[in-house]
Amino acid sequence: MHDPDDELEAELRGLAADREPVPGELLRAAVDAFAWRDIDAEIAELVYDSLLDADAASLVRGPSEQRMVSFAAGGMTIDVEVTGAGPGRQVLGQIAPPQRAVVEIRYPGDTVTVEADELGRFRSGPLPHGPASLRLRPAAGAEGPAIVTDWISW
Amino acid sequence: MDPDDTGQLVRGAADGDETAWRGLVERFSGLVWAVARAHRLTNADAADVFQTTWLRLAEHIGRIERPDRVGAWLATAARRECLQNLRSAARATPTDDIDRLDIAPVVGNPTEEAVLAAEQEREDADRAAAMWRALARLPVRCRELLRVLMASPPPSYAEVAAALGLPLGSIGPTRGRCLQRLREEMAGISGGLSPSS
């Protein structure tokens, strides 16, 4: 290697490997993530996030502790309002078109299950922060595929 | 990195092969981590970004449009998570990791060889420390680009572009400019410690 830029880049890479290697527990977490894939479920993609998509005016007002995210899959949308700061969160959700459902709020370490009422509304008690995904399945007696939301971190 | 190989890993993982998944983790963990570090997130937030990105890939693994370009997919997903993180009021402020100096101490009654070796280690450590400090002083664009570029294994320019939301064609020239800035910054910090040339 004779190119000075290549040499400096290689030296930088060695420096990063020395000082900031990927922590072992994170590598294990990434391997474990494989178990979370849900082969049969439909994915509801993140289509709106107030953190990224809010207009310039609201950004000028400053960040708030309330975050709106929306997921969409086929004909269904799931709006979730996330509140809370520091270690705690709470969510308020709305499924459209309105329908009953069992809502599993999934974290890598834990799952909290709540129910959406006939108007498609659901809410949680105190929740941890971190990577999260909702898994919706029809309420008992109803039919339909499961739906999982894009993992986000809240 | 062989893109065909990468595509095979994605297809294998999509078929449920855990070994293929591990291969992807091995190949691209450095890149995802570098994206998080480049945005100067706290350790906890960087860990969240990292984990969320891999969970996302696991969920989407059967639906990746360009399996050979999953590196860029991961870089884009990580970048998006970083931006959300930075915009969230619920996060702590970013930290600087520039004050970590690793200088090996000399103990006992050193032989001349040991003294020379220790001196060399100190010089190397000084240079490494100077380089790390210089990196932190660069303009944000350069700091971010170099930090992503510093991932192991080396990322492609397409992956770097995806990680930073920059045009692919700008990466090469910007890299050259930023490496030169780094040399200048290092020369400024140490008043003469000569960077590699």
What is the CATH class name of the largest domain in chain B?
Mainly Alpha
Separate helix tally of chain A: 4
Question: What is the helix tally of chain B?
Answer: 8
Q: State the domain count of chain A.
A: 2
The shape of chain A, in one word, is: elongated
Order of helices and strands of chain B: HHHHHHHH
What does this protein look like?
The complex is a heterodimer of chains A (154) and B (197). By secondary structure, chain A is an alpha+beta fold. Chain A has helices at 4-19, 24-32, 50-53, 56-60, and strands at 42-49, 66-73, 76-83, 88-96, 101-107, 110-116, 121-123, 127-128, 131-138, 147-149, 152-153. Chain A folds into two domains: 1-36, no CATH class; 40-153, no CATH class. In chain A, 22% of the residues lie in helices and 42% in strands. In chain A, strands 1, 2, 3, 4, 5, 6, 7, 8, 9, 10 and 11 form an eleven-stranded mixed sheet that branches. Chain A is elongated and about 70 Å long. The mean pLDDT of chain A is 89. Chain B has 197 residues and is mainly α. Chain B has eight helices and no strands. Chain B has helices spanning 3-14, 18-38, 43-60, 70-87, 112-137, 140-149, 157-164, 168-190. In chain B, helix 6 crosses helix 8. Chain B starts with a helix and ends in a 7-residue tail after the last helix. At the A-B interface, helix 1, helix 2 and strand 11 of A face helix 2, helix 3, helix 4, helix 5 and helix 6 of B.
Condensed summary:
Chain A is an alpha+beta fold.
Main attributes?
heterodimer; A: 154 residues; alpha+beta; 2 domains; 11-stranded mixed sheet; 22% helix; B: 197 residues; mainly alpha; Rna Polymerase Sigma Factor, Chain: A; Arc Repressor Mutant, subunit A; 8 helices; 0% strand
